[in-house]
Amino acid sequence: MGQGLGFFFFILSCVCLGGPCFCSAHTDSIKPGEGLQFSKLLVSAQGTFTLGFFILDTRSYLGIWYTSDVNNKKVWVANRDNPISGTNANLMLDGNGTLMIIHSGGDPIVLNSNQASRNSIATLFDSGNFVVSALNSDGSVKQTLWESFDDPTDTLLPGMKLGINLKTGQNWSLASWINEQVPDPGTFTLEWNGTQLVIKRRGDIYWSSGILKDRSFEFIQTHHNIYYFISVCNDNEIYFSYSVQDGAISKWVLNWRGGFFDTYGTLFVKEDMCDPYDKYPGCAVQEPPTCRTTDFQFMKQSVLNSGYPSLMNIDTSLGLSDCQAICRNNCSCTACNTVFTNETGCQFWRDKLPRARVGDANQEELYVLSSSKDIDENKIGKGGFGSVYKGILPGGQEIAVKRLSGVSTWGLDQFVNERLIVNQQHRNLIRLLGYCSEGEERMLIYELLPNGNLEDLIFDPDRRKGLDWNTWCNIIKGIAQGLDYLHNHSRLNMVHGDLKASNILLDDDMNPKISDFGTARIFERNESEPQTSKLVGTFGYMPPEYFSEGWCSPKTDVYSFGVLMLEIVSGQRIIPPDCKDDNLSLIRNAWKLWGEGNSLKLVDPAMVGPHSTTQIVRWIRVALLCIQKHEERPTMSDVCSMLNRRDPPEPNPPAIFALR
């Protein structure tokens, strides 16, 4: 009886009272005569994707996003160049099968022009595709009339196409947003030319991937256990597509600064990478004007109010990337900015602008074009989230200042995560001294560690030879103790999420300090298999279940630690720089030699001394235990015990073999 009542009330919630039928319960489809109200959602059958209205900068849009994405980043926007005002709007499938956005501000926005049928249905699928299908009399699908995959925005999902339909002329390409608040088509497009991926800026080639050959691109580092590439060329269509393992969350995004990246954090093209006149792989050759040298770049600076700009362009289709490109190629331009509050339009300055000081009146922030010689004088590092500069506090203490990419969503997430370590005090964790956030600027201030990072130490043969056995022991045990503290003894139990050699810094006494907590996450002690929809770790260091299932737990860091130990012992990278098939040969070789009883053949001869052989074999055994399948891995507390006194058990095969 309870089931019958539940069904009865669901029917009541969808009753049509003399007009369109609006269902309040989550469903994946809209039938002719039904609609979706502004505050309601469509959810795909397995809950993978959600479709609904959203608001940006007072303007409203209809979009699709991954249901599990806490940031609700849109993978498709229906009316990106035709926003509506207010919230008085509905998505309707009328009696003729026309799918449209009805709103109070003007004519309906029709999504499937000339592709309608009276007996039809609009369905959001678990692929992220929103499809209008014609139906047979028995309710089965007769044909696809319209689909959102034919009108992509800035995101490529598995199964979507880039290319052209030679019969219909349908073109499939991505177009970036103007900026993070304006989804209108922006500066950059991503196309498939039949052999390679091409990013264009306002129609001119900006970057290309190199030809797709043997399942890889010349200028893209990808991982074959994640992606399968598809290239089709026949009389009907020419296109590129990709697929992933069943259930894996994936998207490729072209952002408004020309960055091209995937869900896993892989940066195919870094933001603004091809703007400098340096020749990065894949970037189109750009010759600077005669007035510029190759090292000019923009810095956001506070300057004394300069009055009116020298030139203004109020075209709202222009974004900051356009403004900077125009300024860079105009010899008289010294600075630029956008015009409107939604960061569109351009304004330019010709005079040299004096920098403002704290407390100065009449100051404003502009993007000033400067030589990198002036900017980089104190730069000591650069990463995916920003640059690091050396500084000195008033008391004379040397510090490292990480200036995050302020306009990047990833930069904001990292800023929030990094601040968590203020409360984490351990000798093997880097010390955060302070931070600041103002407008788009976000900076983190750390202790300065003079001996660089562990990556440079491991893979520099000369520096390796200079280290004694006790120093290596101290480094390995220190990293293990730092992770054990994070997992079990800190005020916030944390998973680092991107442990690797370059994220281990070394102080004056070569003590290791775990750094770069931008991908860290807090976990509950009783949380067995926590999942994440934002996979941003480094391939090779991350366990298979992280990419295939999205599992992120302390065992994720344990796996990374095992890989790091193998790199330390062997002096070899987990993925060699010249490796094109990402075969994780270091793990495979370590397991093979262990099985043969020849583990010492893995070891860099520079590490072996008269008293180190037994302990090195112990390290290799512990490393192999750390890279076993998820449920077989030890905890970091166990690892610390085994590194000191406790005898390690015999390891089982590495987790990567379970993928076969």
From TrEMBL:
Pfam families: B_lectin, PAN_2, Pkinase. It is a single-pass type I membrane protein. InterPro entries: Bulb-type_lectin_dom, Bulb-type_lectin_dom_sf, Kinase-like_dom_sf, Pan_app, Prot_kinase_dom, Protein_kinase_ATP_BS, Ser/Thr_kinase_AS. SMART domains: B_lectin (SM00108), S_TKc (SM00220). GO terms for cellular component: plasma membrane. ATP binds at K402. One of its GO terms (molecular function) is protein serine/threonine kinase activity. Its EC number is 2.7.11.1. The keyword ATP-binding applies. It is found in: Cell membrane. Its main location: membrane. Residues 1-18 form the signal peptide. It catalyses: L-seryl-[protein] + ATP = O-phospho-L-seryl-[protein] + ADP + H(+); L-threonyl-[protein] + ATP = O-phospho-L-threonyl-[protein] + ADP + H(+). Residues 374-643 form the Protein kinase domain. Keywords: ATP-binding, Cell membrane, Disulfide bond, Glycoprotein, Kinase, Lectin, Membrane, Nucleotide-binding, Phosphoprotein, Receptor, Serine/threonine-protein kinase, Signal, Transferase, Transmembrane, Transmembrane helix. The keyword Lipid metabolism does not apply. It is an enzyme of class 2 (transferase). This is non-specific serine/threonine protein kinase.
